[in-house]
Amino acid sequence: MGKYQDNTPASLTRPSREQAEEAVRTLIRWAGDDPLREGLLDTPARVTRAYEEFFAGYAQSPQDLLQATFEEVSGYQDMVLLRDIRLESHCEHHIVPIIGKAHVAYMPSSRVVGISKLVRLVEVFAKRLQTQETLTAQIAQALDAALAPRGVAVLIDAAHQCMTTRGVKQPGVSTVTSQFSGVFAADVALQERIWRLL
Ligand SMILES: Nc1nc2c(ncn2[C@@H]2O[C@H](COP(=O)(O)OP(=O)(O)OP(=O)(O)O)[C@@H](O)[C@H]2O)c(=O)[nH]1
Ligand SMILES: [Zn+2]
């Protein structure tokens, strides 16, 4: 009998906690230290628990999150914009933090969603291994799919620690990405209004 009975590729099967902790011990040795010295003994367990927090988004569904919508907003039709949502993610190339701000806007058609859900939506995708472009696009696409609004705008402004603390070492650089759909994609004046609001 094969090791993986459901034909799931080995690269997709979740290791046990013990295997994950062993991998951390390997990386500690790779860094040049002794995983058995007192100060590092509990580190593998802490790191795996930290990974559960950093990457909690894999276990969360954006569709479930955006299910509860409502219509009664007394005919309100203009944009809803959440500015300065704290963004904490990890770059998929180096697994180091991406820290910044996300701004999410949509132009409702008939339904709106609880504003906290927009923050949670950012978190679902941020708590995965990401590029900033993918993160921006995934948030926009999930909102479009769930609310069928007249348009969506997602902007992210973030610093990548893979560029600030290593590599090119440019602490002052932030990366700005944006994705517009619907009326926001069609109307440059609307895009300008958003940039001004930010
Ligand atoms: N487009 C994009 N690139 C990213 C993102 N996060 C990190 N990167 C880049 O991914 C690239 C990986 O390049 P490689 O040459 O394979 O890796 P590297 O040798 O570590 O690159 P350096 O960072 O230049 O030292 C780097 O240029 C990173 O700056 C992101 O969110 N979007
Ligand atoms: Zn990186």
Explain what this protein looks like in three dimensions.
Belongs to the GTP cyclohydrolase I family. GO terms for molecular function: GTP binding; GTP cyclohydrolase I activity; zinc ion binding. There is one protein chain. The chain has 198 residues and is α+β, with helices and mostly antiparallel strands. The chain has two domains: 10-54, GTP cyclohydrolase I, N-terminal domain (GTP Cyclohydrolase I, Chain A, domain 1, Orthogonal Bundle), CATH 1.10.286; 62-197, 2-Layer Sandwich (GTP Cyclohydrolase I, domain 2). The protein contains eight helices and seven strands. A five-stranded mixed beta sheet has the order 5-2-3-6-7. A hairpin with a 5-residue loop joins strand 2 (80-91) and strand 3 (97-107). The mean pLDDT is 93. The chain binds guanosine-5'-triphosphate (GTP) and zinc ion.
CATH topology of the largest domain: GTP Cyclohydrolase I, domain 2
Structural shape: elongated
Strand order of the largest sheet: 5-2-3-6-7
- By CATH, the superfamily of the largest domain comes out as GTP cyclohydrolase I, C-terminal domain/NADPH-dependent 7-cyano-7-deazaguanine reductase, N-terminal domain
Main pleated-sheet profile: 5 strands, mixed
Strand proportion, as a percent range, falls in 15-25%
Tally of helical runs: 8
Q: Poorly predicted ranges (pLDDT <50, ≥5 residues)?
A: none
> How helix-rich are the residues, as a percent range?
25-40%
Structural class category: alpha+beta
How many beta strands in the DSSP annotation?
7
Query: What's the order of the H and E elements?
Result: HHHEEEEHEHEHEHH
> What is the first-to-last residue Cα distance?
58 Å
Q: Which ligands appear in the coordinates?
A: guanosine-5'-triphosphate, zinc ion
CATH class label of the largest domain: Alpha Beta
How many domains make up the 3D coordinates?
A: 2
Q: Specify Rg, calculated over alpha carbons.
A: 20 Å
What do the pLDDT scores average to?
93
The appropriate CATH architecture of the largest domain is 2-Layer Sandwich
